[in-house]
Fold these 3 entries.
Entry 1:
Amino acid sequence: MMCGAEILALPEGVQRVAAVLRASGHAHAPVMLSDAARTAQQAADALGVSVGQIAKSIVFRRKLDDAAVLVVTSGDQRVDEKKVEALVCAGKRLGRADAAFVKARTGFSIGGVAPLAHASPVLVLIDRSLFRFDELWAAAGHPHAVFQLSPLALERLTHAVVADLAVDQDVEKKALSHAIALVTLRAQMVEDGADVPSPCISICRMNATTALCDGCFRTRDEIAAWSVADDAGKRAVWRTIGQRMQTLQN
């Protein structure tokens, strides 16, 4: 446990988390890492645990009432938005939460969003995949801060609903194979002297883990810049897409 003086030495966001944990009688105070742990893999590497033991927080924006919906899932899983929508939405869908929305509603910046101690009311859901482990680590309000807890403690501290919210991995693999096949066919049209086709195959969904579109395997910046890029630039993007697809298949 931390005393008051130790809490005051922490960044403001971590102070809030530490105060909530202390008031709740939680046995493990936040730990400041020497390197940033903005991703589940970075956190796992720093702590010497499996990536699945990292309880990552994904924030969505509910269009019905502009509420923040925070899903805590295992670091080796992806959130299935349709499952979340079925649980918390009525008619209107979930939207993407940008950095400003996340900061305003949770009080934390992306990369350090804790599952508790939020700046305003947040609807928290827990993915059942976390219950595979006895020990978890969650962000503690700063990219360098984490704290240890069990799945049951996470449920108790957040008062969250536990549900199956992860993407079915067999379905995901089939979707990946389908997208790669379609993009590979489109790639055959990329020839010197010909108009360079767009890689878009009308599957416009950004993957929170890879930061790539699940349909064309481009980043947001690459998609935004496509319309103003020259043919040489477009062919360079196509070469990068080919390398990414090969990596994803391995």
Note: The longest strand covers residues 54-62.
Entry 2:
Amino acid sequence: MGQAEKTPLKKEALQAEVYNMLLLRTPHNKILEVKKLPTLPEVAYRLLDLLSGEPEISELEEVIRYDQSLTAKILSVANSAYSGSQKEIHSLERAIVLLGIREVSEIAFSICVFSVFKPLRNVGNFNLKEFWLHSIATGITARIIAQALDAKNEDKFFTMGLLHDIGRVLLLHLFPEKFEEILLHQEKSGRSLLVEEMECGLAHTWMGRWLLKRWGLPEDFILAARFHHNPFYKERFLMEPAIIKLADMTVHNLNLVNLPGGQKGNPEPLLYKLGFTEDLYQAILEHLSVIRESLKEAWSQVL
């Protein structure tokens, strides 16, 4: 008799579970059905190729010079950085010499990414300028952490950090009203933005993975976007997403920018897993505290 009483409850619970799964699946299907997506400019792929190696000044200049808006931005950043000098910088080559090859490559690639989502507007308490500044700060922090760990291809960590939350602007692009609703829920609940997204079946980690895959970007970039909140996958520890997670958490903990619902928390488990000493991490925190204002000022010229 007792077993007979439990059966309807089990059936009801199963139906509810199936219903919830269908609710979560619907947004995924909508995303998969999207035909027209923001596309990455061709110059961005050429810049990525350069960033993966050790380019000469002439190679970088050749990639950038035919894009007038990109050239103008680089010159603007160079003139802002060297505003105390007597002569205005008119030459792209001169700008690259002064700013540095790696720095100009990263700035140029970042501008390409920003341009993809330029038509978007702020929604709720989500400020796009603050979002991009957070992405940049995460990229810079990730590169510093990678350098401290003597990781391979340390320069790629800036780009991985820049793109780690790209799924969030895709969410704003495809579902602006739903995203505004998610932001309102997060503001009231105080929970992380990812939790609110997951309840709607629109996790930015999943969307970021999907977009970067559609763009044909390297697998490690895709993995960083997908697993930067949980760098454990099938009992494996993914070092690159872990570095991005630590960078993301560090930027949020220091409040380098004002972005709601980020992954703040205790970095100690990650530090231990990555083999990071407390003294070394403290030195990174102090460095970031020193450069926080100059970071905002410099990159605001790009946005």
Note: Residues 1-9, 12-24 have pLDDT under 50 and may be disordered.
Entry 3:
Amino acid sequence: MPTNPNGTIFINYRREDSNWNALALYNELQKYFSKEQLFKDFNAIRPGDDFVESIAGALQRCDVLLVLIGAKWLDAIDTTGKQRLTDPDDFVRLEIAKALSREIKVVPVMLDGAKMPRPEQLPEPLQSLTRRQLVEIDPTRFEDDVRKLAEAIRRILAEAGYPSNPGQPIPMPSPQQNPNPEPLQQAFGNIPPKPNNNLVWGILTTLLCCLPLGIVSIVQASKVDALYAQHKYSEAQKAADDAKKYALWAVGAGAVGWLIYAILVAIGAAQY
């Protein structure tokens, strides 16, 4: 497979640590880059493909590696209780080591307040990761943090000689541009502003309240930007409203669940 003419971004993550974060980041980055530029295992490996060869090929071609580091990244263990990063065959470790050996841009992306490990906490092939400039993504400012990350990636790709990404549905703001493009869009027709996709609420309610309803909220939220880019404004608004609705239902279900649990605990304690 040839190298993407606009550059390729590889998303490295551990499922047990940042599966939903990786999905949210992948969807949000599509505001700034095409799907063909973004490599994440679930979207870029087709049924029947050799996933080892697919990943190896993508790592050989990629220009930027994003290393997603959450609270469980460093201490993740396998079925035998061994720290995964100490296993030379661990895929997360192999991907990072390969990118570091190629001397491409490797960007640690710290999630939910996670801290960069110290060099002595990492196996030798990964220790130089701690010298790479990191970025932080907080759920409360998710879209703004991802926008800043996308700006940094675009600068990296431009320095590598790749062209900009014309035709992307949502342009990157810059100090010379209006940071809120919606009034400019409205000046060229009666175009409604893009609704908030409520993705952050979907992620939070999935993690903290009710998994099934939270997942439905995330699915609806992931549709908003694509529908808006296709000028399906009413459908985009409905998807945003549904995402918010299911997130609120998840909060309610979670509250009811915790209330029932508290009552059962109190009844159990009274019996003793």
Note: Residues 18 and 98 are 21 Å apart (CA to CA).
